[in-house]
Amino acid sequence: MPVLLVLLAAAIVELTVLVAVGRVIGVLATIGLLVLASLFGVALLRRESARTLGAFVEALRTRKLPHRELLDGMLIAAAGVLIVVPGFVSDVLGLLLLLAPTRALIRRRILRSAARRAAVRFAPGAVVEGEVVDEPAPRSASGELR
């Protein structure tokens, strides 16, 4: 239910901003501005996607964990969705997500939050009780081990 309320509020805000801008600069200029923002956003999206993919491949090549690159890719995908959705507010949010410094701030916050949650779940020195089960190796029809 809260997701629907957020989507409804976002739609109302977008429509309000579109109508306000349309009254100030006119309908055709508003449509032109939306198209221009989308084209600029798509160009920036392509550049940042290629850069992040290159960083991801480099991290894999050097055998480093690509957690930063994966998170950047997810944020860039979210920015792409925001840019494609018509509206000035979503375009501004999408363009902000495409800027590397803004993305770095959000990425740091997400990683810090994930580290806090992981520390609570997997406390160092915690004992996890379990049982080792040794299953017999599969045998062929003649009785030999495979």
Structure summary, number of beta strands? 0
How much is the average pLDDT? 87
What distance separates the N and C termini?
A: 54 Å
Structural category: mainly alpha
Helix content: over 70%
Name the overall outline. Answer: elongated
Largest β-sheet summary = none
Number of helices: 5
Rg, Cα atoms, Å: 24 Å
Note the beta-strand portion.
under 5%
Uncertain segments are none
Name the helix and strand elements from N-terminus to C-terminus, one letter apiece: HHHHH
Kindly summarize this structure in a few lines:
This protein is mainly alpha-helical and 146 residues long. 75% of the residues lie in helices and 0% in strands.
Keywords:
mainly alpha; 146 residues
Would you give an account of this structure?
The chain is mainly alpha-helical and 146 residues long. It has a domain of 78 residues. It is built from five helices and no strands.
Strands, helices and their partners?
Elements: H1 2-25, H2 27-61, H3 67-84, H4 88-98, H5 100-121
Helix pairs in contact: 1-2, 2-3, 2-4, 3-4
